[in-house]
Structure formats: structure tokens, C-alpha cells
Amino acid sequence: MKIAVVLALITLAEIAIYYIPALASLLIPLLVAFSFAKFMLVILWFMHLRFDSRIFTRLFAAGLLLTLTVFILMLLTFFLRGGPAPTPPGIT
Amino acid sequence: MATAVAPQQGGLFARPTAKTGWWSWMTTVDHKKIGILYGVTAFFFFIVGGVEALLIRAQLATPNGEVLSPAVYNQLFTMHGLTMIFFVVIPMGTALMNFLLPLMIGARDVAFPRLNAFSYWVFLSAGLFMYSAFLLGGAPDGGWFGYAPLSLDPVTDGMTYYSLGLQIAGIASLAGAINFIVTIINMRAPGMTLMRMPVFVWMTLITSFLLLFAVPVIGVALWELMFDRLFGANFFDPAAGADPLLWQHLFWLFGHPEVYIMILPAMGIVSEVLPAFSRKPLFGYPAIVFSGAAIAFMGWGVWAHHMFAAGLGPVANSAFALSTMFIAVPTGVKIFNWIGTIWGGSVRLTTPFLFSAGFVSMFIIGGLSGVTHSIVPHDAQQTDTYYVVGHLHYVLFGGSIFGLFSGIYYWWPKVFGRLLSEKIGKFHFLLMLVGFNLTFMPFHILGLLGMPRRQYYFPANRGFEVWNLLASIGAFTIAVSILVFLYNVAVSRKKGEAAGADPWDARTLEWMTTSPPPEHNFDAIPVVRHRDDFWYRKYITTPEGESARVFAGGAASDEEQHSSEAASDEPPSSSAEGASDREPNTAGAAPPESSSEERPHAGASAEEQGHGIHLPSPSYFPLLTAAGMPVIGYGFIYSPILLAAGAVMLLVGAFGWVLEPPAEEA
Amino acid sequence: MSAAHPPAEHPHTSTGLDNAKLAMWAFLGSECLFFGSFISTYLLYRNVTGDGPTSADLYDIPYTSISSFVLLMSSLTMVLALSSVQNGDRRAMRIWLMATAFLGLTFIGGQVFEFTTFVEEGLTLSTSAFGSSFFVLTGFHGAHVTIGILMLLGLTVMSSFGRLGPDDSRPVEVVGLYWHFVDIVWIVIFTVIYLIPSG
């Protein structure tokens, strides 16, 4: 129950900082941090990973870390080329 | 515990009871029967895919061939690739895994028997769905990796069938992978610690993890392709500002792990066969296991080497070239381990051994030509030439198919109770080895001469004639060798020698039980004390360091005597765990298959030494649920009514699945 | 929520863990890659809007915040459903399950309304790569929620068949895991897709 209150408060805070111009430069890091906090609260408490077997944690973490690694790599290769589909000269 | 629900006899959800005949195969949840179904189906598709290959080689036997029209040629090479990859190599591996996995780890079945049946029926329906496209206006014709925007070409529905058919096949693989992972983690016999598992089980586990994580990626790519083709989305259409390179990334993010999904089971088979016929334990077991895991892990970091010619830029190309070179290292480790296993062993040149040796040698050639691809400028020369086709057939045919045939010859007596003829088998091996090299060695030369792949003809006077003709002759030689194999099967069915439980004097648990195994696999679940436990039940090591046969009846005391000696090559913690924690579970405890999913009310008292073992009853619902999938597929293409019908089948199947009574009450 | 699970009633597995739960966690690991692929596609295309509207033209943050909040709270009711069944109170469990399903349905309704609004403002599946990736990503999340609702209804039916007592609470727990996962996916989508401005 306490967790749910914290989750609700974090969501409120997220929306609040979205509308505060003074925090514009910090917006993205703050949002990522808040979102990460919510994510962890749900998987650790609501999904009991904190209390449950390590095997479950490992299974899930394997998928999550693999996802982060390969897709950051993939988007990086696009970034190195300058974004999606830079139209080659002469082709329209 | 058993009071929660009154047993429901009969009624709406009565479970089928047939043990023999047509219905028993349709409703079976026995991992052995499902394994045989997988094997027969995959072999059927092997013949179909092989006939497609023969048609292709007939067309390319002479310059300007006129056997096939260009449109048909495109469909045939696409379907040949898709069939061999998704409907032959993967399911043939799954067939062996299904049959052997529970036997090898000393379990009565997989963790989710009905899910297992579901996987099979979904796999079958995916294959039939794909092939129905031939009758309904044209099969997929955009190559097995279906590059956009070619795959968006709206002339036929072929690539729509591709997107939906592979999606369905992926669901089957995913369900199977989850099932095997849970089985291996949770259903091992007492004492079967992870580092005592046969290597084939390890490779099954690693393959399953690869499937678990790779299938969703291709799933997303296929959904996006389907939305592009059917609903006018713009994921891959460059005209709308989208980037077709996204397809290549998603496809190869799946496609490269997929390569290891196809080769690792074969590596597992070889790691079982070589020790059995060298009468030596596998050389460097931990190295084989960890290099397998390393291959799987690194296999996620090399996908872009399929895209060197796509213009990723020098930084990305160099990074992926490096990772590709590194992945050769764990593969090399395995090769040395296999050679070390044979080295100094008392080798018996049986058919399974020969196929395994064929695997190792052909795979070395394929692996080396693979390393040449990691060099970017070299790859730029080879991309989309026959050199690549040669390479991939050396690893997939010379590798996977030889490995799978090794497994088929090795475990055939266990599955069917009769041996295959060694004489015919060796002839089969020889013919296949010669035919294989005759077919695919010229591909390398053709590629270096510059012949592009996927061309429906080649012009005269470019120096291509001889090599193409040789390749075509080789292809038909392979076809003859497959006929020899079928003849061998027919002979064995009629008058094959009875196998007995342990015809090869083998090392792992599946040889402890009768051939074919009883429905409940083992009368009593074995207690495992060693890696290669069955060997140590048969042999003791004399003080001079030689193996001596243990005679029946003496085993128990000998085991006691030698458990400490054999434990020395184990980590002390695991053997202690195996010996003390697991043993008390065995006597009279519930069998491991009493999972909550299948049997929520399993009584713990019923099992005593093979009597009164409750196995899950057959069920109609996996078949019904699976049959809904292709109906949904047709619905996407043709009519919302079919879509709704398929969804209803799926829902009814799923609810029936959940609500049907547990096994022992039927 | 506490760790007060009764000891597993089916400990006869090699690890002592429940098969179905292990399978669900493996499946969720797999789902990470599924949604990872869709989110990556969206990130690649979020500025490829062609002549169509951009995300800044469309997104209505207060509205989506409310539906996010609804989904977040459905996780709470799911937790309460599980603790009810573990305490042997089946009636309370059914109430909380229905509450969870209702909140999920509210979320889906909100999504349908949002999609309709976007279409009226000129963004469809075929307007641009941005449109395709937005609708398919959020649509597949919605499909997951829908499947979750069906499973919740299935649990309620099972319970009225007399199953799912305190000794047999695994199905509720496993469906709960799925439901929470769908919730955390939305936490990521809400932040990455809606809140972080594109440009």
C-alpha cells in the first residue's frame, strides 16, 4: 500500500516537472530517474523479486540487459550514419 | 490439498483416453510421441525442401536453363531456405530434444506436457500455412531474409504468408523454449546437478535461451512487415521516409543467434556420440559447456556482419568485424575438445561416429570460410555471391545436418527398439559426404568467379558451366544418399536387429531404460552420483586406472565405494548437495512432473517404484488452440470473419485448457 | 505487500521453485526484447513525421497521465487480490480481480479515445513512419492489457468453479506477474514516448 502511494507521488512529480520551465535542462535525466524508480518499485515489491528466488531475478535481468545492450548498439549504428535513411544524392 | 475440487468425470471437459491409434497421436502429451511427431514432420519437410533444391539445381545445371520460370525459381529458392531452416533443422533438433531431454535428466516428462503438444501443432500448422501459399496465388519469393523494400512488393501475397507463417512458427519455438528451460532447471533427477548434465542437455538449454530472446525480435520485425503490407503502415518504405535498414537490423538481430540455434544442438549431439564411441569421457567438459555459453552470448554482438555491404559506416563495420573474429575462439575451443576426446580412445567407427567426424571436419571448413567473411573488404567481394551460399551450406548441411544424422543413427535404436543397418548406414554416410562436397565446394569457386546468388539462370562462356554441372551432380548424389537412408529405415522396421536397452555401451541415463522406453520412462527415478552416471553404474575404475565391468547386483555397493573417488573431479559443494539434499526426496516422494500447471492436486503417496505413476492424460485443447493460429493468419489476409473464427478457436482452446480436469481424475 | 508467502506446496522440483512461475519469468524476459524492439523502432522514427502532425502537436500529457495512473493503480488492486487469496478470502479476491480488470478496461477505453482523437487530428497508421511506430507500439501494449483482462476474467471463472484456494494461489500470482509487467512496460512507454520531448 505504501508502495502504491509512493508510485502515485512519483507520477505526480513527473507531470509537475514536465510543466516547470526552470527544470527544462534537467528534464530528461529527472524523468529517466523517476521512471527507473517506479520500475524498480514495481518489480521488487509488487512482483516480489526482492523476496523471491535469485533465479527469477537473473532470468528477467538477462532479458532486460540484453534488450538494453543490443538496442542501444543498434540505435548507435543509425546515429553514426546520421539518423534514419539519409537519402543518397540523386535519388528521390 | 486434494479437497479443493471434486473430481469431474466425463462431462464437457473429459480428457481423451486413447492410448493407440489415430486419436492417441492427435491428443498425446507424451514427450516421446511428440518427439517422434516432430521428427517425422521435419523429415517430411526435409524431403520437400530437398526436392526444391533439386529443381533449383536442375535449372542451374546448364547455362540459360529453362526448367523453371523466373517467378517459380524465386519462390523455390525462398521456400527452400525457409523450409530447411524453420521446418527442418530447428524442428529436427527439437525432435531429439523432446525425446531425449527428460530421459537424459531422469524425468518422467517435460514440465508442461500440454504446452509441448501445443508447440508441435503450432509448428505443423505454420508449415502447412506457408505451403498453402503455393495453392493460393504464390509462395514467398523475397529470399529467406526478406529484405525490405523488396518484401513490400505487392504483386503476390507471398511475403504476407512469409510474415504470418514465420510468426506462427516463432510462437511454436518460443513455447518450446520456455518449456525446455523450465524442464532443465526444475525437473532434474536427484543428484543431477547442472555440471553433471549431458552436454546435449546443456546445448538444449543454451539453444532455448537463444530462442527465448531472439524470437520476439523477429516477431516484431514480422509484425511490422505485416502492417506495412496489409494496413499501409510505413515501417520499411523509403518512399515514406522510413529506413529499410531497420528490417535488416531486426532480422539479423534474430538471424545471427538463429545460426547458433541451428548449430548448437548438433554440437551437443556430437559431444554425446564421440565419447560413447571413443570409450572415453568427453575431453574438457567444462570448456565445452562454457564455450557453448560464450558462443551464445557473443552471438548477440555480431549481427551486423551480415550487413557489411549495407553501408553502416567504417566504425560500425570495424567493431562488428572484430567481434566476429572473436566468436571463432570459443568455436575453436570446441573443435579441440572433440579432437581431444577421440585422441587415444578405443574408437569404434560406427555410423553415428562417422557422421560426427563428418560434422567436425565439414564444420571446420565452413567455420574457416566464415572467418574470411569477417574481413570487411573481403566480404564486400563475397556478399551475394555463391561463396556465401557455399559457406552457409558447409555450416548448415555439413554442420547441422551431419550432426543431426549422427544423432538419428545414434538414438534410433532407443526410439524404435531396432538398430539401423551399419552397412547401409556407412554407405549412406559415404555417399552423402561425397555428394555434399561435390555440391558445395564448387560454390566457393563460383562465388570467387563472381556468380551472384539468386539468379534464375547463368550465361554461357563465363567459366561457370563446369562448376554448376558438378554441383548439380552432387545435389542428386545427396538425394540418392537420402533414398539409401530411407531404405535403411525400411529394412530396420522389417527385420532390424533388436537393440536392447544399451546397444552402444553408452554413458548417459537414457540408455538405462528399455528401448523404446515405457510411457513413464523409468520405473524408479535414478539417483545420479556422477557425470556420465550410467557408465559408472556399469564400470568401476581399478586401482591400475583401467575400467572394469560391474556385474549386475554389485552396483550398489560399488557405487558407494567409488562415489568419493568420482567426486574428486566435481566441485565439492555440488557433490555434497547431490548426495545429501537430493536423496531423501526419492523414496516415495511425488514424481517431479507433478507441476502445479499440469496436476494441481497430485497426491504424493501414489508413486512407488513404477506402480501407480500418474502421467498427464492426453488432451484435445493443444490441437484446438494451435489450429486457431493459421485460421487467424488466413483471416488477416482474406476476411475478418476468419479472423474472428480463429480468435474464437484460440479462446475456447485456452479456456478449455485451463478448465479441463487434472490428469489423474480423467 | 510482504514476503509472507506460505511455503510452496509443490516443492518437488530441482530448485524448489514453481514451474509455472519460472515459465512466466522466462516469458517476461523474452517480452523485454519484444517491447525493446518496438520502442527502438519508435525512437528511430519519432521525428520522421513527413507532412503529418508531430508528437508535440498531438500528445495531451494530462490526459495520458491520468490513464497511466489508472494502470498503475490496477497493479495495486492486483497485489490486493493475491494477498486476499493467500489469506483464504476468495470473495475479496474476486472483487479485487474484477477491480483490476475494470481499471484495465478503463485504460483500454482511454487508449481507444486517444487513438480516435489522433486520427481526427490527422495521424493514422499510414501517415508517416512516426504514425506507424506510435500506433503499433501502443497498440501492442493495449493488446497485452486486453489479454491480461481475459486472464483476470479466466481467474474469476476458475474461482467460481471452486478452484484457487489459499493452497492453490499460483495462477493468481503468475497472472499477477504478467499484469505488473504490462504495467512497467507502460511506465517506460509513458516516460520515453510521451514525456521526453522529441526534437
Write up what this structure looks like.
The complex is a heterotrimer of chains A (92), B (666) and C (199). Chain A has 92 residues and is mostly helical. Chain A has helices at residues 2-19, 27-46, 54-81. In chain A, helix 1 (2-19) packs antiparallel against helix 2 (27-46). Chain B has 666 residues and is mostly helical. Chain B has three domains: 1-29 and 617-666, no CATH class; 30-495, Up-down Bundle (Cytochrome C Oxidase, Chain A); 520-583, no CATH class. Chain B has 20 helices and two strands. By secondary structure, chain C is mainly alpha-helical. Chain C is built from six helices and no strands. In chain C, helix 1 runs antiparallel to helix 5 and helix 3 (61-86) packs antiparallel against helix 6 (170-195). Chains in contact: A-B, A-C, B-C. Chains B and C meet through helix 5, helix 6, helix 7 and helix 20 of B and helix 1 and helix 5 of C.
In short:
The complex is a heterotrimer of chains A (92), B (666) and C (199). By secondary structure, chain A is mostly helical.
Bin the strand percentage of chain C: under 5%
Supply the CATH architecture of the largest domain in chain B: Up-down Bundle
Quick one: how many beta strands of chain C?
Answer: 0
First-residue to last-residue Cα separation of chain C: 41 Å
In terms of DSSP E residues, the strand content of chain B is: under 5%
Task: Kindly report the name of the CATH homologous superfamily of the largest domain in chain B.
Answer: Cytochrome c oxidase-like, subunit I domain
* CATH superfamily label of chain C: Cytochrome c oxidase, subunit III, four-helix bundle
Helix content of chain C: over 70%
Output the CATH topology of chain C: Four Helix Bundle (Hemerythrin (Met), subunit A)
Topology, number of strands of chain B = 2
- If helices are DSSP runs of H or I spanning 4 or more residues, what is the number of helices of chain C? 6
